[in-house]
TrEMBL record:
Classification via InterPro entries: Beta-barrel_TonB_sf, CarboxyPept-like_regulatory, Oar-like_b-barrel, TonB-dep_rcpt-like
Topological category with respect to the lipid bilayer: Multi-pass membrane protein
Gene3D superfamilies: Carboxypeptidase-like, regulatory domain, TonB-dependent receptor, beta-barrel domain
GO terms of molecular function: siderophore uptake transmembrane transporter activity
BP-aspect Gene Ontology terms: siderophore transmembrane transport
One GO term describing the cellular component: cell outer membrane
Localization: Cell outer membrane
Signal peptide extent: 1-22
Phylogenetic classification of the source organism: Bacteria, Pseudomonadati, Bacteroidota, Bacteroidia, Bacteroidales
Annotated ranges, domain TonB-dependent transporter Oar-like beta-barrel: 235-1033
Keyword list, A-Z: Cell outer membrane, Membrane, Receptor, Signal, Transmembrane, Transmembrane beta strand, Transport
Name of the molecule in the record: TonB-dependent Receptor Plug Domain
Length: 1105
């Protein structure tokens, strides 16, 4: 029955609905035609011509003198002609339309006796003043993309021009909840493994192929959906009646890279970065059929910034890590001699990334009523990555100032796709139009590596700080890691204009099929507190094996942690399958209340339906978890429609475009990263088993579990709450735009977001609290563990026995929360100089400020990681903290100027300056203070004084408790965040790095080459310079980062737990300030010794016509 229903629902979707991810890809034009007495002219003929393609649009004015063109191509130029019996014709030319704009063009026509001849008006105005504009958004035109600096040639280089952005986050909301589309096709990595399609460091589509980009944070048009962060909507170039072609190349190299920052002189590792592309467009049939084609390839060798110091006696400075080459070489020889395994090199100088892209488009003007557009997108790419930070030791696995990994644990992410989209636009008559979109996407992503198949081993530095030292073996997340995604999408919007009302009826849907392979630690993973500890453990195994390998005498492991999974069914690697159908319906009325006032009222209903049949786990269903919770891993959430009412307002106060008041309020429904939903299918206890009992290091990557192993194996489970809903956010926006002087526009914009259905994870596999930690706070931090053990090498305590059943480990439940919110304000001033001595100058300055609070950042794709990487006091309740994308303030200045030296030579200069704080971070303990089995997620209590903390020196530490307190107290006093929050728990992401100053510039010189046939070809030379300030002065442009942790691992740990809480000691933990290289940390921040702190240049050459 379920299979029949599923087939029926998919059929309904294909016949009736639209893609959830599709956004508006056209523009519109409207206005009013009156006579000299301001009387409406009824039945006046209005004719718009898209000059490049000769496409003609015709309409007539209605009873109120108003007219409207729907579904116009973006760009231009357009020429609009007005005619009426007894009146002179009027013509307006040079109109260019931006994505999503409703261009207002009002005309006063004069009678024949009043004026002789034709009047020519040149349209020249900003798109900020537009009746379609309600909430916060930014439009990036082709002209801006050509003039602004872009060293990575990525979409992010231009979406950052949105005032309320912070990296790929918008208004504090995580990038995971953005919706990225190109020509209506979904370019999200909707499964949630990254912010967009394409391997890390590569782009899914060539920037050369894009005509415009629109970033919408709060659009109140219900046609825009499937996001709670931002909708990032791009439209590709199209062909025209003229032939156009281009060939281009961009390159970066060590010779164009800075090596000095302040007094540090760094060695620039050899690397290369080349991008090549060609494009061609033109008519197949003039005024009828056009094509556009772009092909591009990237070849990159990215530098690795850190290298090992030669010996333990050498200093750790600049680009040199604490890990030393002498120790790493000895370790490599040991592995080769004892296990016949070559871990690779520890001197990785650069890592390769490649991408091949194709964008193709055909546009057909079938007749004056119908146009058809077909697009094709192709990508084949891979990126090489350093070891994952997932489950990493303190400060990550490197390469960094602490750790240097071997090349065997680097891995490649391969991302490939084929996407086809088709649009049919039908203008039925003057008042009715229809837009139909259909598409299919085949996405194929997988990982591979060069290091062979061998267990991953993390080795720490042997100190109480517990920093990483090195890693080798198969990266724990990469074995058989693959994702096949098939997405079917279809969209239909019907628009009907009735007097002052523009009614839109639409349906939206997509059908997604996922096949996911993921087996964390399938090759096994070990962690040791020191190199010596690893040697001893491995030698114990080898001696036992040499003595006959009697199971009864197998030595116990010295590893501080061990994990290895196996296939429960024993018939090959198991995969998870997830099918989801999303249905959407909406209705909207854009009501022109008066010529100056527009109201947009809409209602959208989105309904996700889970079509996957999941196997039942009777054993798991019979268990009782924390708080008496019962689960059923065979059931996904109930089908629940999500209602999203919206109201948008646009008021042109005086009717002259000088003062615009706009805004709106309404609900936005998004989609969760689908990987979070697939976790239930992949972690149901029926696919993988987890060997619970550790063993000394044996180098065995694939295991065949014994009956005893299976009996002692535990289930790692993930489940979604039955009442779970897709993310929903209530957005309220208010803005005022004021045009003054000769085209200056000042804007004040405020945006408030309130979570209705956000997402968080909790671990119901933990014990109910057995006590409460006494750490001086006077508050109750629950404690879950029932036992304690001591690391024989470091002497540090750690809790044991934290799981509620002996058959399960982590049981992660995904639920909703409504506790998050954000509030941001932007002040903006901008101007385009079209005339006079400053012609060609563009200025735009903005300052945005506010904050964003959330329950979780959702920083991982794995359910257990999404839970354990959320720093908290109580990891199982809805604690709010600062969102990782929350920023206090951001100053953004943009400028571009074109100087025309002659009719055949011009130079453009573009600049972007940002003042911002790079990332937020949390102060957490190094150690498992609450007994939940995790060492990095416990927010610290910041002691008021010596009596507020129990100091217990580590084994072998010669410092007294009072000496350690003086060091702790000195560190707290020098830290701006800690010193202001004594006597409190640190907040998640409560601290933030110092202000950074980034100035990037672009210099472009065009040489025009007139040909005898009248054509003009252009040769363009360009220089993009990142961090231009550092080029001017070695002390400028240098960013600061945290001494412990990083932007990718934002936990700062300066307190280490030496005594675990137990019932016997009244649940009172002991702490120390660890020694690192015989020193304690004294400063919160240090200079960031990476390329972003130094200047880098890119050279480009382009020939086009």
């Amino acid at each position: 029955m379920l299979k029949r229903m599923r087939s029926f629902l998919v059929l309904v979707m294909l016949l009736l609905t639209t893609t959830v991810s599709a956004q508006v890809t056209t523009a519109s034009m409207s206005g009013k035609v009156v006579d000299a007495s301001n009387e409406s002219l009824i039945g006046a003929t209005v004719r718009a011509v898209h000059t490049p393609t000769g496409t003609i649009y015709n309409t007539v004015t209605q009873s109120n003198g108003q007219y409207r063109f729907q579904n116009l191509r973006i760009g231009g130029p357009y020429t609009v002609e007005f005619s009426y019996v007894g009146f002179n014709p009027e013509k307006v030319s040079n109109i260019n339309l931006v994505l999503g704009e409703d261009h207002t063009l009002n005309i006063v026509m004069k009678e024949d006796a009043q004026t002789l001849g034709e009047v020519l008006v040149v349209a020249d105005r900003s798109s900020v003043i537009s009746s379609n504009r309600t909430g916060a958004q930014e439009i990036i035109t082709r002209d801006k993309m050509d003039k602004m600096p872009s060293l990575s040639h990525s979409l992010t280089d231009f979406t950052k021009l949105t005032p309320m952005s912070s990296g790929s986050n918008f208004a504090g909301t995580s990038y995971r909840f953005n919706n990225v589309t190109v020509d209506g096709a979904s370019f999200n990595n909707s499964f949630g493994l990254s912010s967009s399609l394409g391997a890390a460091g590569t782009e899914p589509i060539s920037l050369e192929a894009l005509e415009q980009v629109q970033v919408m944070i709060a659009p109140y048009d219900v046609r825009n959906g499937a996001f709670t962060g931002a909708g990032i909507n791009s439209v590709t170039k199209s062909g025209s009646n003229q032939w156009h072609a281009s060939a281009y190349m961009y390159t970066k190299s060590p010779s164009m890279t800075g090596y000095r920052q302040k007094d540090d002189i760094n060695t620039v590792t050899e690397f290369s970065n080349h991008q090549y592309g060609i494009s061609l467009s033109g008519p197949i049939i003039k005024n009828k059929l056009f094509f556009y084609l772009n092909g591009e390839m990237d070849r990159q060798e990215k530098p690795v910034n850190y290298k090992p110091r030669a010996t333990k006696n050498d200093e750790v400075t600049g680009e040199y890590s604490f890990a030393d080459a002498q120790t790493l070489e000895q370790l490599s020889q040991f592995l080769q001699n004892k296990f016949d395994y070559n871990p690779g090199t520890y001197n990785v100088g650069s890592i390769p990334t490649e991408a091949d892209r194709i964008t193709a488009r055909v546009d057909w003007n079938i007749n004056q009523k119908n146009t058809l557009s077909v697009k094709y997108f192709y990508l084949k790419s891979f990126a090489t990555n350093s070891p994952s930070t997932s489950g990493a030791p303190t400060n990550g696995r490197g390469a960094n100032s602490y750790a240097i990994p071997f090349s065997s644990c680097y891995y490649r992410t391969n991302n490939n796709f084929n996407i086809v989209m088709a649009d049919l636009v039908t203008n039925i008559n003057d008042r009715m139009s229809n837009t139909l979109k259909v598409g299919y996407s085949a996405l194929r992503d997988y990982r591979d590596m060069d290091g062979g198949f061998f267990p991953q081993v993390d080795i720490l530095d042997g100190t109480s700080a517990g920093n990483a030292f090195t890693t080798f073996g198969t990266e724990v997340n990469s074995y058989n890691n693959m994702l096949n995604s098939d997405i079917y999408q279809i969209q239909d919007n019907f628009t009907w204009i009735i007097d002052k009302h523009q009614l839109t009826f639409g349906t939206q849907s997509d059908y997604r099929k996922f096949k996911n392979g993921y087996g964390y630690s399938f090759a096994g993973s070990w962690r040791y507190s020191s190199v010596d500890s690893f040697y001893e453990d491995a030698n114990n195994y080898l001696a036992w094996k040499e003595a006959g390998a009697d199971p009864a005498t197998r030595p116990t492991t010295l590893a501080t942690s061990f994990s290895q999974k196996y296939a429960v069914q024993g018939n090959g690697f198991p995969y998870a399958y997830v099918d989801i159908l999303s249905l959407g319906f909406y209705v909207q009325d854009k009501w022109t209340v008066t010529p100056n006032l527009n109201l947009t009222l809409g209602l959208r209903i989105d309904t996700p339906i889970f079509l996957t049949d999941l196997d039942k786990n009777d054993e798991a269903a019979g268990l009782t978890f924390q708080g008496g919770e019962k689960i059923d891993v065979s059931k996904y959430p109930k089908t629940k429609p999500l209602l999203s009412p919206r109201l948008g307002v646009n008021w042109n106060v005086f009717g002259d475009g000088k003062l615009q008041v706009r805004g709106g309020t309404g609900i936005f429904s998004g989609t969760p990263p689908y990987v979070w939903l697939s976790n239930q299918a992949g972690n149901n206890g029926l696919l993988f088993g987890d060997l619970a009992k550790g063993r000394p290091f044996d180098g065995i990557a694939l295991v065949t579990p014994t009956a005893a192993d299976i009996k002692s194996s535990k289930m790692d489970l993930a489940v979604t709450d039955r009442d779970f809903k897709y993310p929903q956010l209530w957005k309220t926006n208010f803005a005022v735009d004021y045009s003054f002087g000769d085209g200056w526009i000042a804007t004040v914009e405020m945006l408030y977001n309130k979570d209705l259905n956000a997402i968080y994870h909790r671990n119901i596999g933990l014990n109910d609290p057995v006590g409460y930690v006494q750490e001086g706070s006077g508050k109750e931090r629950p404690f879950f563990a029932t036992g304690v053990a001591t690391d024989s090498k470091t002497g540090l305590d750690y809790p044991t026995g934290y799981y509620i059943t002996d058959r399960t480990t982590n049981v992660i439940q995904m639920k909703n929360t409504s506790k998050g919110y954000s509030f941001y304000t932007t002040l903006q001033l901008q101007k385009n100089f079209y005339h006079g001595v400053m012609k060609g100058l563009y200025l735009n300055g903005s300052y945005s400020f506010g904050k964003s609070k959330s329950v979780t950042d959702g920083s991982s794709s794995v359910a257990s990681s999404a839970w354990k990487y959320r720093p908290a006091v109580n990891p199982n309740v809805e604690e709010t903290g600062y969102a990782s994308g929350s920023f206090r303030g951001r100053l953004l200045l943009q400028a571009a100027y074109t100087a025309e030296w002659s009719k055949n030579a011009s130079t453009s200069i573009g600049a972007i300056y940002q003042m911002y704080q790079p990332f937020r971070y949390s102060y957490t303990y190094n150690g498992d203070v609450n007994g939940d089995g995790q060492n990095m997620n416990d927010l610290i209590y910041i002691p008021k004084d010596r009596t507020d903390i129990n100091i217990v020196p580590a084994t072998g530490d010669e410092r007294s408790a009072d000496d350690i307190w003086k060091q702790i107290d000195a560190f707290i006093k020098q830290d701006n965040y800690l010193s202001k929050h004594r006597g409190e728990y640190a907040e998640r992401n409560g601290a933030i790095t110092p202000w950074a100053h980034q100035l990037d510039i672009n210099i472009t010189h065009d040489i025009k080459l007139p040909l005898k046939n009248g054509q003009v070809h252009t040769l363009r030379f360009s220089f993009d310079i990142a961090n231009f300030l550092n080029l001017l002065n070695k002390d400028w442009g240098v960013k600061e980062t945290t001494v412990y942790g990083s932007s990718s691992s934002p936990q700062y740990q300066f307190l280490t737990m030496t005594q675990a809480p137990t019932a016997a000691n009244g649940y009172k933990p002991g702490f120390t300030m660890p020694l690192n290289n015989k020193k304690v940390v004294t400063d919160t921040f240090k200079d960031l010794n990476e390329q972003s702190s130094r200047w880098q240049m890119q050279f480009g050459i382009k020939y086009f016509f």
